[in-house]
Specification:
The structure holds 2 protein chains of 2 kinds. By secondary structure, chain A is α/β, with parallel strands linked by helices. Helices cover 37% and strands 25% of the residues of chain A. In chain A, helix 3 crosses helix 4, helix 3 packs parallel to helix 5 and helix 5 runs parallel beside helix 6. Chain B has one domain: MetI-like (MetI-like fold, Orthogonal Bundle), CATH 1.10.3720. Classes of the chains: A alpha/beta, B mainly alpha.
Chain lengths: 247, 215
Amino acid sequence: MTAPAESIVFEGLRKSYGGREVLAGVSAAIRAGEIFAIVGPSGAGKTTILRLLDLLEGVGGGRIAYDGREVHFGDPEALAQRRRMAMIMQNPVMFSATSFDNVAYGLWLRGLDEAEIRGRVFAALDFVGLLEAAGQRSDRLSGGEQQRLAFARAAVLRPKVLFLDEFTANLDPANVRALEEATLRHRAETGCTTVIVTHNLLQAKRLADRVAFLLDGRFVEVSPTHTFFEDPARPETRAFLSGELAF
Amino acid sequence: MASAEILQIVLLSLLVSGTATLIGAGIGIPAGALVALKDFRGRRFVRTVAFTFYGFPPVLAGLLVFLLLSNAGPLGFLGWLFTPIGMIVAQVVIVTPIVMGVTISAVMVVERRTRETALTLGADESQWRATALHEARVGVLAAVMLGFGRAISEVGAVLIVGGNIAGYTRVLTTAIVLETSRANYAEAMIFGGILFVIAFAVFTVLHRLQARGIL
């Protein structure tokens, strides 16, 4: 499971829904291979950033570049860029099929031959500890197992960029730990750039190289993880970490 | 009543309703998928029309097809009135909106659910549409079953267009009407029982396929 990672640079990202401005000019440069966490209160626009970066919708303003190549939602090259990335959502949708078929889906879309698909799917299922469930219908798996399956479904694509959107919310501690370990192992083995959106500050502390604090549609602070938690530069960050920030 | 005559009525019922369902599915499934998955001008209007025709009264469908196929009608030259082909045409008019309407609902439900997942895994526009159709397969099959159920159990259209001619256009439902009007309740009940068994068998097969995870 090796794939060179891609850097992401986004500048002045803006996005509004129904006249309400969710992102008001967000900028950051995410280095190739780093784990970058975005934290912030509910409704701050964290998930919106991931959706824009994954080219699921167009920006209202600003630009996004992967390894220096600017890509726009809806452009012909957007599909190729989307195929270099993968996303795991908070509530994964499983197709009505076996675990094997769910993990194989993205490889079938890319037209790989069956022998390679089998090898990669079994390796990915083994990676998340679901090899035994290969032939089981995915809708009969538990919530935690489904989320691990979603991880395998993304990892099997050997993405250069992986987006994780609250991917352990509502899971039991054992599955949270399994998924966090999978994230770290995945990065160690592939060097994949990983962007995490999380409410869980401890998770950001455990996983991320750098943490960004999003408030009112803007990054208030982007710092290395240790600095962010131990010596934040901004009073808003300190207030957020101490739970004193009122929303 | 001779068992050969009963068998002939059962087989004609299956042939007429089965053929009408196949044709109705051939039109209704692609049309329903198109309305559910393709954004085009007037899409909402087409959807409303499809749902309106969902409850189209069979007897009215029969009357319209009768007028079309009668000697004075625009398609009278075909000579299909009071023939099994005419009955199939009438049932296609009844079945198609049902298959189309249920297909629209089934595909739209999974379309919302699966679109983003398919896109994040690298699907292009045509691939996610194919995925949505595949995910809606149980609903689409249910649409076909519902269409068949409506076709084989309706009486108004086949009576008007077919004429209930013994040995030629008599089907289970028109036979029940006839035998009841003659006060032959036992024979009417036999036909009713056969009709029930056919409907039961069709839905049992569907349920088994779902339970085994084939669908």
